[in-house]
Amino acid sequence: MYHRLQVSPKTGVRDARGEETQERIQRYLGISTDRVQVRDVYSLFADLTADQAAEIATCCSNPVLQTTESTDVSFDWLIAVGYLPGVTDNVSRTLRRVIRDAIGRPLREDEEVYSSVEYLISGPGLSRESVATMATDLLANALIQSVAIRNASEWREQGPHQNRPRYDASDVEEGASVEIDLTGDDAQLQAISDKNTLALTLAEMKAIRDYFSGQKSERRALDLPTNPTDCELEILAQTWSEHCKHKIFDAIIHYRDDAGNEQTVDGCFPTFIRAATFEIGEDIDWLVSVFHDNAGVVRFNDTLNLVYKAETHNSPSALDPYGGAMTGIVGVNRDPMGTGLGADLTLNVWGYCFGSPATPAEDVPESLFHPARLRDCVHHGVIDGGNQSGIPYAIGWEYFDPRYLGKPLVFCGTVGTLPRTINGQASEDKSILPGDFVVMAGGQIGKDGIHGATFSSEELHGSSPSQAVQIGDPITQKMLADFLYVARDRGLFRFITDNGAGGLSSSIGEMATQCGGACLELSNAPLKYVGLRPWEILLSEAQERMSFAVPPEDWDELKALADSYEVEISNIGVFTDDGWFDIRYEDERIARIELEFMHKGYPRLEIPAVWAPPQHDEPTTLDQDPSQALLDLLARDNITSGETHARQYDHEVKGLSVIKPYVGIDNNVASDAVVSMLEPLTTEGVILAAAVLPRYSDIDTYHMTASVIDLAVRRTIAVGGEMGRIAGLDNFCWPDPVESPKTPDGAYKAAQLVRSNQALYDYCKAYGVPCISGKDSMKNDSTRGGRKISIPPTLLFSTITPMADITRSVTLDVKRARDLVYVVGATLPELGGSEYLAMQGYTGNAVPKVDADEAIRTYQAMAKATAAGLCRSIHTPALGGLAVALAKSAIGGQLGIEADLSLVPTAGDLDLNGLLFSETNSRFVVTVCPDNWQKFEALFEADQAVACIGKVTRDPALVLHHRGSPEVELNLAELTAAYTRGPEA
Amino acid sequence: MAKCLIITGYGLNCERETQAAFEHCGAQVSLLHFNQLLARPETLQEHDILTFIGGFSFGDHLGAGVAFANKVRHQLGEALDSYVAGGRLVLGICNGMQVITRLGLLPASDGQTGEPQAAMARNDNDRFRDDWVTVRANPESPCVFTRGLDSLALPIRHGEGKFTVASQDVLDRIIAQGQICLQYCDPESGEPTEEFPDNPNGSPLGIAGVCDPTGRILGMMPHPEAYLSPYNHPHWTRQKLNGVLPAEGLGVAIFRNAVDFVG
C-alpha cells in the first residue's frame, strides 16, 4: 500500500534550506522569486497499518522543527526531484533502518521506499520554462534524477506526484552469458569495442580473438563457446583498461628532443618513477611498501607506519559532480583501508582544477556543467563524503584555467596509519592460500558504475554512459570500517583489498595472482535489485565494498561479527592455484581465462614523442601600477584566500590538527602546509604539502615538474620540516598523448610526458624524495559540439613528512612589530608562466627553473633555523612571487611590512616587476626577532643568498621601496579585502 | 575510578578523542558499539558517565540525530530511563546533543524527559561550518561539567546547531533555571552574541550548551574533545611567543569536572 510521508518546516520555524535555495536560484540563474519552501517526501509502498505509518512519521521528523501534516501551503510552482531507477538513494536506505526499528520488522524486498525533495516556489510571472530551468540547471541532475513540475492548479487537480522509481528488470536478456562473435573484419571488431564502451584498441581485440581461437577444443569440453562470452570480453576490457593497466605509463616511447637526440623510453613508470624510488631506497631505511599495494607505506615511529594515496575522479565528477566527487573521497578512503592488513584513516586532502566560475555561459561546451555549479557540487560531494566519514581535511586547494572547462580535475587523497605489527605479523604483509574463501563485505551490487574503468579511459563525449557514475554512501562505508578494524585485530582474514574501478573483476582478478587462481559463484553476491546480468555483477563499481581472503575456519566468526555490525557479507567463491580466473553463475561456467593472459596478454603500446619548445610572445611594456597589480593578483582565482569554501570541510575531527589549512590572526590566510598529530595528546606528527603549477607546462613540462617538486618540498620546510624524511606522491593528469586523427599533436603531448618524467627522476633523486605511490589519468580531453578542449598537463605532487616535534612548527603570519624581514634564496628574472603575466594576457618563456644543489643548501639551513626556534614566521613565495608572499604574511599578522626591494638577493637582470612578481623557486620570506639576527645569518654560508630587506611595522601598511622611491604602498585593509574577495559562491 | 561509557557505531566518529579526553582525566572508558550495548543493556548501569559523541549518525539523513535517537528510544529506552533516574551523568557533544534533545533528555525544563522541548535546527546560512569560537560558561548554572569555567575557545563543526525551543515557556524556564550553561560570545567584549561568525548558527542568546535542571545532563555543540592539546588552538604559535600557551587544551576541564564529580 502507498503511503506518502511529507516532512515540512513547521510554521514559525525558519526554513534555512528554502532561503538558501532561493538565494542560489537568484545567484546562479538570475531568477527572482518571492519565496522558496523545501520539504522532504518519503514514498512507502509497504504493508503498514495506519498506526505503523504514524509511528514512522514520528520517527523520521523532529516535532519541534517539522510537521508531517499535509498543511495547505500556497505556491505557484512545485518541483519534485527524485532519483532515477537504480540510482543510490542513501536517505531511503536510512529510512528502511528507521522503519525496521519503528515497526519491529525489516521491510521485505518487495516493499519499496524512496526519498524525494519538493521545492515550492512562489513569485509573479514565473513561466513553466523558467521553473524547468531551475530544475534542470540547478536543483536536479537529469543523468541521475527525475523531475516532475506542477503549477498550483495542476497540483489541486492531480494531487501529489507519486515518486516510484522502481527498477524494471523486464528487458534483461535470458541466459547467464552470450557469445560475442569476433570472427568479423577489423571494422566489426572495433565496432564491438566502441558499442560496448570496452575502450579496447583493434590490436587488443585481435589479441583477444587469437587467444580464444587457440583454445577451441578445451573450451568445447568445458561447455564454453568458441568465441569469448560477454563476461570474458568485459573482464579483459576492464583489466586492460588504461585506468587499470596504465598502458601509457608502461608504453615504449620513441622520444626525440629539439636537438634531434633520440631515446627509447622503455616505460615512463619503470624508467623514471620506480627507478628513482628504488635508487633512493638503497640509502634509506624508512620505505616499507611502495607501488605494489593500494597505497604507499613508510615508517613513522616505533609503533606506526604511514600510508598515503591520492587519486582523481575526473570523468564521474564531470557527469555527476556531487556523486562523482563524493565517490572520489570515499573511494580513495578505501585504498588505505585495503593497504597491508587495513590502515586506520587519519587525514583527507582535496584539490580541484576548474574553469573559472566567472566563465560566460556561452563559453561552456554544450551539455557540460557551468564551472560555478560544477564547483559548488564538487565541494558539496567531497564535504559530505569526508565529514560524514569523520576524517579531518588537511590540505585543500583550487586552481582555475579555462582549459578545465571540458574536464574538471578532482583530486582526493587519504593518509592512514598502520600499526607496524598486527597479531605479531608485519602489517604490510598479506597472503592468500588456495582454499581461502573469496569474501565481499559492505554495500550491495547494483548497476552503478558499470564500465567506470573503461569509460574513464576514453575522452568525455556526449554519449558517455550514465551508468558509469556511482554515488557514495559514507555511512555504509563507516560501518564497514568499524567492522573491518575489529576483524583485522582478531586476525579473521588473511588478505584485504578494496573494490574500486572494475569491481570484483578487478579486485578478485588481482587477488587471484597472489595464489594462482580463483573460482567465483556470482549468484551468491548480494544485489540491490533483480535484473543484473552476471557480467554486470562482476564489473559493477557499486561502492563501499571490500574484498577479503578468509581462511575457511575463520568464516563463521567473521560472518557473526559482520552481522553484529550490520555489515552485509558474502562468501562468493574460493581461491585456487590452477592458474585460471573461473566465473560461474548458478553453477554454469560463464568465463574462464588464464591469469597470465588476463594480466599480461595485451600488446604493448608504442608511441612517438617529439619535443619542440614552444615560443610564446613576450610582453613589450608592462606599465600597470605595481600597487594595483598586487591588489589584482591577490584577488585572482588562483591566489585568493578561498576560506569560505574551506570552512565547510571539517578540519578538526579527531582533535589532531596543529597547523591548520588557514592561519593568521583572522584564520583566513592559506597556509603553506599543514601539520597534524597522528594520535591525541602526542607531540609527534606529520607535515602534508602539495603543489600544482599547470601553466608552467605551456613552456616546458620539465621545469613545471621540477617546480612542483620544489614547491611541495619548500612548503614542508616552511612549516618546520626538514630534508631526509620527505616522501612524495605523483598524480599525473594529462591530455591524450597518443597520436591519432583525433589527437594530431599527440607526439608533442607525449614529449611533454617524457620531459615531465625526466624531471621527476632528476629532482626526486636530487632531493632524496622517493615517490611511494602515484596514479595517472591520461585522457583528459573533451569533444563537444565539434570543439576539443585538452587540459594543460597537470602534475599534483604531494608530500608527507614525519615531524618529530610538532611544537616547533612555524606559521606564515608575521608576529611582532620590529621583527626583521629576510628573503632567503635568490630571485631570478623568471616571469614565464607566472600568474602576473597571465593576468596581463601573456605566457612568456622564462619559466622558473630549479637549482637543486642550491635549494638543498637553503633547506638545510632553514631547517636548522626552525629547529633553533629562530623564525617567527616563514612563508614561501609561489604564485604572485615575493609581493604576494609579503602581503600574505602581513595580512596574516595584521601588521605592516616596510622593505627595500633593492636589497632582495638576485641573479640576473631584474626590473621592478621581476622583483615583485617573478615566481623563482626555492625562496622564503622569514621574520626574525631583532635579537637573533646574528644567530640566523650564521646558519648560512657567505655565498648563500640571504638578505634582510626590512622590518615588520605597527603601521598597518605594506610599503615596498625600490631604488629610493616607494613603489608599493597599500594599507592592510585594502590588501585583506582584495585577498578575501573571491571567487566565492 | 569514574567509569565512562561511549557508544559507537552507525556513523558516529569522535570515539577516539573522547576516549582520550576521559582517560587523560583518569577515568576508565568502555567503547561499546550500540549493538554490543543492546546485547547487555544492564551494562549501562555499571557506568557513571554516558557520552553520546559527535559524528554523523545515519549520515544525518532525516535530520541530525533523528534516526539514532529513535533507535535509542525504541531499543534502549527503559535502560536509559533508569540510568538517568539514578542521577548519573550524560554528556552529548554535537551529534550527541542533537540526539539527546530529540530524545527529550534535554532541556527537560519541567523535569519531564519524554517529549522533546527543543531541537537543533539547520544553521541560519544552511551550511556546515568548521571554525573556532569563544564560549562563555554561566557561573549561575547548576551544570556539573562547566563548573568553575570562565570563557574558552573551542572548535565547532556542524550544519545543524541552532538551538530552537518548542515554546517561549521552555526558553523562559531554561533561562530562569540557569540551564543555558554555555553561550557563544564576542571574543572582544566577552558578551553573548547572535552575530555570525562568532555565533556560527544563529542560536538565540548565543546558546551553545544546555543542561537539564539538575545539571547532570549536558548537551553542547562545540567539541571540547578536539582541544585536549594546547597545540590544537589556531593561535598557539602566538600564545607560545607571548608566554600564554596553556599547559593543556582548555577542553580538558569539561571532562575533568565530570570525572571529579563522580570520582
* Oligomerization state: heterodimer
How much helicity do the residues of chain A have?
25-40%
Radius of gyration over C-alpha positions of chain B, nearest whole angstrom: 17 Å
CATH architecture classification of chain B: 3-Layer(aba) Sandwich
Q: Over all CA atoms, what is the radius of gyration of chain A?
A: 29 Å
Strand order across the largest sheet of chain A: 18-20-17-21-19-22-23
Cα distance, first to last residue of chain B? 6 Å
Number of separate helices of chain B: 7
Let me know the number of strands of chain A. Answer: 41
Strand content of chain B: 15-25%
Please name the CATH topology of the domain at 810-985 in chain A: Phosphoribosyl-aminoimidazole Synthetase, Chain A, domain 2
Which CATH C-level class of chain B is it? Alpha Beta
- What is the number of helical segments of chain A per DSSP (H or I, 4+ residues)? 31
Second-tier CATH architecture of the domain at 810-985 in chain A: Alpha-Beta Complex
Q: What fraction strand of chain A?
A: 15-25%
Q: Total domains of chain B, how many?
A: 1
Principal-axis shape of chain A equals globular
Order of helices and strands of chain B: EHEHEHEHEEEEHEEEHH
Q: How do the strands and helices of this protein lay out in sequence?
A:
The complex is a heterodimer of chains A (985) and B (263).
Chain A: E1 2-9, H1 16-29, E2 35-45, H2 50-59, E3 66-67, E4 77-83, H3 90-103, E5 112-122, H4 128-139, E6 145-151, H5 152-158, H6 186-195, H7 202-213, H8 216-221, H9 230-239, H10 242-245, H11 247-250, E7 252-256, E8 262-266, H12 268-281, E9 287-289, E10 296-299, E11 304-312, H13 314-319, H14 321-337, E12 344-354, H15 371-389, E13 393-400, E14 409-419, E15 421-422, E16 425-426, E17 437-442, H16 452-455, H17 474-489, E18 495-498, H18 503-515, E19 518-521, H19 534-539, E20 545-550, H20 555-564, E21 569-575, E22 580-585, E23 588-594, H21 595-600, E24 606-610, H22 626-634, H23 643-646, E25 657-659, E26 662-663, E27 669-670, E28 674-677, E29 685-691, H24 701-718, E30 727-733, H25 746-767, E31 771-777, E32 781-784, E33 787-790, E34 794-803, E35 820-824, H26 835-839, H27 852-867, E36 873-875, H28 881-893, E37 896-900, H29 912-917, E38 924-928, H30 933-938, E39 946-953, E40 957-962, E41 965-971, H31 972-979
Parallel strand pairs in A: 7-24, 12-13, 19-22, 30-31, 37-40
Antiparallel strand pairs in A: 1-2, 1-3, 2-5, 4-5, 4-6, 7-8, 9-10, 10-11, 11-14, 12-14, 15-16, 17-20, 17-21, 18-20, 19-21, 22-23, 25-28, 26-27, 28-29, 29-34, 30-34, 32-33, 35-38, 35-39, 36-38, 37-39, 40-41
Helix pairs in contact in A: 1-4, 2-3, 12-25, 14-15, 15-17, 22-31, 24-25, 24-27, 28-31
Chain B: E1 3-8, H1 15-24, E2 28-33, H2 34-39, E3 49-52, H3 66-85, E4 89-93, H4 95-103, E5 118-121, E6 129-137, E7 151-158, E8 162-165, H5 168-176, E9 180-184, E10 207-211, E11 217-220, H6 236-241, H7 252-262
Parallel strand pairs in B: 1-2, 1-3, 3-4, 4-11
Antiparallel strand pairs in B: 5-8, 6-7, 6-9, 9-10, 10-11
Helix pairs in contact in B: 3-4
